[in-house]
């Protein structure tokens, strides 16, 4: 999640745990602790793919944060004594640190909560920025600065409201999963890998990606749709044209669970993460090989490719789609890709 959300979450957690000892200093410390795990973005691993894959790694692991919180509380108590007992202080510090990766695990990016184990957890029920989750935390933390005697209670209310919304996001995801499963059953895509994620800033409009060899099918569905039917659009996924794959590409494939789009653009071979983004706005795209003048492919460190800017005309279209206007689905794809909706007989089967 974004830094404002993590700071507000850390402050609210600190205020609630502090109880009657809640103060502006406690809230400020909680906000700082809440953003601390994301300082790993300052670490450069040598290339953009490694930076992407290794973000939310060791700094988001409960196996690291638990002993680190103990050490931090010990140093804090030693050099700046507080009104808290050591165990109370340790609990406060640990809670502020660990709620950060716990919240991150509900996004699509993936969080290595169990690092050094390789498992990455991504519930994918909430977008990385969602004001409906963040606003109650911010409002109640600010209110606790004005009414200090009720600080802990106000922080608790903020956490309760945001947690209810987070719970709703999981329920909404389950509803969309059932909708997708019901539509794909009995079609050629029934057993294919499916990725589902909310579109930016909400948990009402959802994006679905289904892998199908060198094709992927993309659709949008809103919980406000009168008709639960999803209009899937077929898009080229491509395939890696060379016999060997560079190690960084294998890293990206593992990180994305193979939700990758391959492209041969002029003299470059690129791969794009299909999970993060919406429609044709996919921000994580990388160049892995380039052809020299002798038409031989040369591999080097991957290079990040600048993503296209969001077209202003698509913003109101997304809003209308969220409200249940299914007639504009095709307008949200790139003009050159829209005709592929009927690219094969399979399209007719999936479209119903």
From TrEMBL:
Entries under Pfam families matching the protein: YdjM
Any one GO molecular-function label of the UniProt entry: hydrolase activity
PANTHER family in the record: HYPOTHETICAL MEMBRANE SPANNING PROTEIN, MEMBRANE-BOUND METAL-DEPENDENT HYDROLASE
Protein name: Metal-dependent hydrolase
Bilayer-spanning residue ranges: 58-76, 83-103, 123-147, 154-176
Signal peptide: none
Source organism (scientific name): Photobacterium swingsii
Presence of keyword Thylakoid: no
Keywords from the UniProt entry: Hydrolase, Membrane, Transmembrane, Transmembrane helix
Domain of life: Bacteria
């Amino acid at each position: 999640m974004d830094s404002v959300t993590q700071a507000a979450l850390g402050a609210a957690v600190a205020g609630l745990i502090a109880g009657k000892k809640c103060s502006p200093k406690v809230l400020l410390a909680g906000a700082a602790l809440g953003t601390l795990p994301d300082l790993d973005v300052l670490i450069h691993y040598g290339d953009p793919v490694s930076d992407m894959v290794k973000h939310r790694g060791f700094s988001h692991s409960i196996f690291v944060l638990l002993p680190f919180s103990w050490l931090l509380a010990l140093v804090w108590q030693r050099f700046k004594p507080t009104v808290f007992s050591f165990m109370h202080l340790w609990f406060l510090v640990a809670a502020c640190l660990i709620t950060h990766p716990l919240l991150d695990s509900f996004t699509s990016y993936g969080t290595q909560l169990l690092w050094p184990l390789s498992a990455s957890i991504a519930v994918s029920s909430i977008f990385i920025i969602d004001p409906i989750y963040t606003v109650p935390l911010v409002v109640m933390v600010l209110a606790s600065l004005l009414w200090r005697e009720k600080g802990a209670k106000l922080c608790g209310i903020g956490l309760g409201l945001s947690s209810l919304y987070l719970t709703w996001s999981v329920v909404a995801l389950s509803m969309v999963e059932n909708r997708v499963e019901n539509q794909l059953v009995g079609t050629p895509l029934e057993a294919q890998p499916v990725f589902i994620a909310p579109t930016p800033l909400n948990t009402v409009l959802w994006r679905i990606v289904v892998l199908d060899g060198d094709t992927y099918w993309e659709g949008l569905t809103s919980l406000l749709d009168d008709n639960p039917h999803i209009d899937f659009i077929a898009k080229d996924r491509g395939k890696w044209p060379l016999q060997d794959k560079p190690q960084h590409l294998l890293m990206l494939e593992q990180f994305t669970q193979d939700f990758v789009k391959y492209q041969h653009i002029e003299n470059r071979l690129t791969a794009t993460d299909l999970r993060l983004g919406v429609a044709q706005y996919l921000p994580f795209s990388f160049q892995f090989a380039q052809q020299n003048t002798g038409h031989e492919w040369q591999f080097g460190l991957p290079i990040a490719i600048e993503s296209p800017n969001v077209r202003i005309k698509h913003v109101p279209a997304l809003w209308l789609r969220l409200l249940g206007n299914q007639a504009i689905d095709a307008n949200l794809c790139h003009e050159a890709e829209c005709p592929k909706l009927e690219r094969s007989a399979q399209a007719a089967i999936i479209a119903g």
